[in-house]
Amino acid sequence: MLKDKVQQYISENKAVFKEEKEYAEKHQLIENLQLEERDPGERIVDAYIERCDKQTENMIRQESSEFLAQPLVYLKKHKNEFIYLESQWFDFVRVDAVSLEVDDVFGTYDVMLGLRLQKKLSDPIREYLNHHLQGDEAKYDLLFSQEDGLWDLNFALNDVDGYDESISIGEGLQLIYRFLFKLVEAIEVYEER
User: Fold this and answer.
1) d(Cα 56, Cα 134) in Å, to the nearest integer?
2) Are residues 110 and 182 in the same domain?
3) What does DSSP say about strands 59-63 and 48-53: parallel, antiparallel, or unpaired?
4) Structure pTM?
5) Residues 90 and 166 in one domain
6) Both ends of the chain: CA-CA distance in Å?
7) Are residue 130 and residue 176 in the same domain, yes or no?
8) Kind of pairing between the strands at 140-145 and 109-115
9) Higher pLDDT pick, 29 / 130
């Protein structure tokens, strides 16, 4: 459960990220503690990052966290590439890994990931996506894979609140994390009913 993970995280750290701090305050997990807010750019500095070829899915190069400072439009200039990222923080919100690429047809920044939630949670997941992806044309693909026991979820970063094409790749990944954190929080509330 997210609550247990956040509780453990704040018990081990006095400086925490915005999402976890807001969650802890909202759910009254903090008793007379003053938590400092960490720079959101620090969240994925230890991530495993690959630039890969879209056609072959072969790795072009493993990148350091400095690559995340590249502007998001890097992906439009390199349409043949996608970014694959693994981070303990995405694991924190029940996500295996995140891939980010530009859609060849629509030119949107597509987010692809595997979400570790039970199959029976289809309705609340869809409800969250329907209400929180922005824009009239907001679409997503959600399919449960029996083989992996994961939800394959694809959506456009362009439809996430706070999106702006002038952001960096790292800032885009922070938006994705925040969106997924709120999704898992909503699912947790649904399960507690």
Assistant:
1) 32
2) yes
3) antiparallel
4) 0.93
5) yes
6) 14
7) yes
8) unpaired
9) 130
What the block records as the tokens of 181 is 């954190």
- 104, 116 Cβ separation under 8 angstroms: no
Place of tokens 């999402």: 19
Using CA atoms, how far apart are residues 93 and 144, in angstroms rounded to an integer?
17
- The strand pair at 95-102 and 81-86 is best described as antiparallel
Going by the DSSP 8-state scheme, the letter that residue 94 receives in this structure is: T
Which residue has 């009913």 as its token pair? 193
Q: Specify whether the CB–CB gap between 121 and 156 falls below 8 A.
A: no
pLDDT digits (tens, 9 = 90+) for 69-106: 999 999 999 999 999 999 999 999 999 999 999 999 99
Q: Using 50, 70 and 90 to split pLDDT, how confident is the model at 144?
A: very high
Q: Specify the residue for token string 């909202």.
A: 26
Cα pseudo-dihedral 143, 186, 168, 139, rounded to 10: 40
Q: CA 55 to CA 79: how far, in whole Å?
A: 11
In whole angstroms, give the CA distance from residue 107 to residue 130.
21
Q: How wide is the angle at C-alpha 170 spanned by C-alphas 168 and 173, nearest 5°?
A: 115
Domain co-membership, 22 together with 106 = no
Phi, psi of 177 (to 5 degrees): -60, -50
Instruction: Indicate if 59 and 134 belong to the same structural domain.
Output: yes
